[in-house]
Design goal:
Radius of gyration: 27 Å
Strand order of the largest sheet: 1-2
Number of helices: 17
Oligomer: single chain
Distance between the termini: 63 Å
C-alpha cells in the first residue's frame, strides 16, 4: 500500500519536537497533549494557525514550524495519536498509518529499549538526509526525462504533420535512407507511442506497489537500479540505525535482527530472516552473515567496511561510524549514475536532432529538383 500519511516536513518536525521535549524530561503523554492544544483554523480559507509565542517556544522546532501555518491534517492526526498513547499503546503503534513503516521500524526499536528521545532525533535527521538523497535523484533524472519527452513529441509531430505532405510532394519517389529511418521512427511513435508510454507507466506503478512485498527472483536487480534503489537505501539506513540503538542498549545482535524482522514487511523480513538463520547456525558475526546472506542487504559496501573493522565488541559504535560514510558514498554514487543516464539521453537527443536536420536537408534538395 502506498503511504499517504503526514508529509515529510511535518514528520521531521514532529520527531524533532518530541526529541526536544523529552530532553527536558517531559512525559510523552504531556508532550502529545501540548501538541493537541494547537488550535488550527479548519476552514479551507485559513492561512494561519492560532499559536501563541509561548506555545511555539514550548513546542520547540515543531512549534516554530507550525506558527503561521494551517495544518488540519496534523491536528486530526495528533488527536488520534494522543488517544492511542493515553490508552496504553506504544508511540510506534499509535503512529501506524501516519508514518511510513520504515520509520516505525526504527521508532519501535528505540522505544523498546527506552531510547525514544535519541531515536526521534535520529529520525528527524534521517528524513532530512532522505530529502537530500531524493532531491539528488529527481534533479539528476528530471532533465533527461524532459529531453526524452521533447524528442518523443518532436518525432511524433514530425511524422503526423510532414510525412503525408512530403510523400505526396515527392510523387511516389523513394525516400533517402536517412529520411526513411527518421520518418520511420516518427511513424512508429505515431502508431504505438501512446501505448508504449501507458504500458511503461503501468509497469513502473506496478513495481512501486510490489516493492514492499516481492521477494523472489530479480528483486536484487531492482534493489540496485535507480530510482528503485532509493527504496532499499531508505530501509537499509533505518535498519542500521535500529540495530545501532538496540545493540548499544545491550540487546544481542541476533535478538536485534529477529526483533526487527518480526513486524517488517515481507521483503525486509525475508532479508533479515536470512541473516538471522546464518547467525543461529554459528556462521559468523552480524557483518559476516549480512555479507554471506547473498541479498546485498543492508548494502554490500557497508558490510565490507564493517568486516574490515573486524570488531564485534563495539559493533554499535562501528555502525554509528560507518553508516554516515556509507550514506554519503551512496549519494555520490547516485549522482554519478544520474549523470551517466543524463549523458546517454543527451547523446540520443543530439543524434535524433542531427538525423532530423539531415533528413530535412535531403528532402529539401529532392523537392527543389522536382520543382
Amino acid at each position: 500500500m502506498i503511504f499517504s500519511g503526514l508529509n515529510k516536513d511535518t514528520r521531521r518536525m514532529f520527531y524533532a519536537g518530541i526529541s526536544t521535549r523529552l530532553a527536558r524530561n517531559d512525559s510523552l503523554p504531556d508532550i502529545l497533549a501540548s501538541f493537541e492544544q494547537i488550535n488550527t483554523l479548519n476552514n479551507k480559507r485559513a492561512k494561519t494557525t492560532v499559536l501563541s509565542d509561548d506555545m511555539a517556544q514550548l513546542l520547540g522546532p515543531l512549534g516554530r514550524w507550525l506558527s503561521g501555518k494551517a495544518n488540519p491534517k496534523f491536528e486530526s492526526a495528533i488527536k488520534a495519536i494522543t488517544v492511542k498513547v493515553a490508552s496504553g499503546e506504544t508511540l510506534a503503534n499509535a503512529l501506524a498509518g501516519f508514518m511510513p513503516k520504515r520509520e516505525l521500524v526504527l521508532l519501535e526499536a528505540g522505544e523498546s529499549v527506552g531510547a525514544l528521545g535519541t531515536t526521534c532525533a535520529k529520525l528527524a535527521d534521517k528524513i532530512k538526509q532522505e530529502n537530500a538523497l531524493l532531491s539528488t535523484i529527481i534533479a539528476g533524472l528530471s532533465y533527461p526525462l524532459i529531453l526524452l519527452i521533447v524528442m518523443f513529441f518532436g518525432l511524433r509531430s514530425l511524422a503526423s504533420s510532414l510525412l503525408p505532405t512530403l510523400t505526396s510532394a515527392l510523387n511516389g519517389q523513394e525516400l533517402p535512407p536517412v529520411a526513411k529511418f527518421t520518418f520511420g521512427g516518427g511513424q512508429f511513435l505515431l502508431d504505438y507511442g501512446i501505448l508504449m508510454a501507458v504500458v511503461t507507466l503501468v509497469i513502473l506503478v506496478t513495481i512501486v506497489i510490489l516493492l514492499p512485498w516481492y521477494k523472489g527472483r530479480g528483486r536484487t536487480i531492482f534493489d540496485s537500479i535507480a530510482p528503485f534503489s532509493y527504496y532499499r537505501i531508505s530501509y537499509a539506513s533505518m535498519v542500521l540505525d535500529a540495530l545501532e540503538v538496540l545493540i548499544a542498549a545491550g540487546v544481542p545482535p541476533l535478538r536485534a535482527v529477529e526483533q526487527l524482522a518480526q513486524k517488517a514487511q515481507p521483503w525486509l523480513a525475508h532479508r533479515l530472516d536470512a541473516i538471522s538463520i546464518l547467525m543461529r547456525q554459528g556462521h559468523g558475526d552480524l557483518p559476516r552473515c549480512c555479507h554471506d546472506a547473498g541479498h546485498g542487504f543492508p548494502d554490500s559496501g557497508i558490510t565490507q567496511q564493517l568486516l574490515f573493522r573486524g570488531s564485534t565488541k563495539n559493533l554499535a559504535v562501528d555502525i554509528a561510524d560507518v553508516a554516515p560514510i556509507w550514506l554519503s558514498d551512496i549519494t555520490r554514487s547516485i549522482e554519478r549514475s544520474t549523470k551517466v543516464i543524463s549523458g546517454l539521453v543527451m547523446i540520443v537527443f543530439a543524434a535524433s536532432s542531427i538525423l532530423i536536420l539531415l533528413s530535412m536537408q535531403t528532402l529539401g534538395t529532392m523537392l527543389t529538383k522536382i520543382n
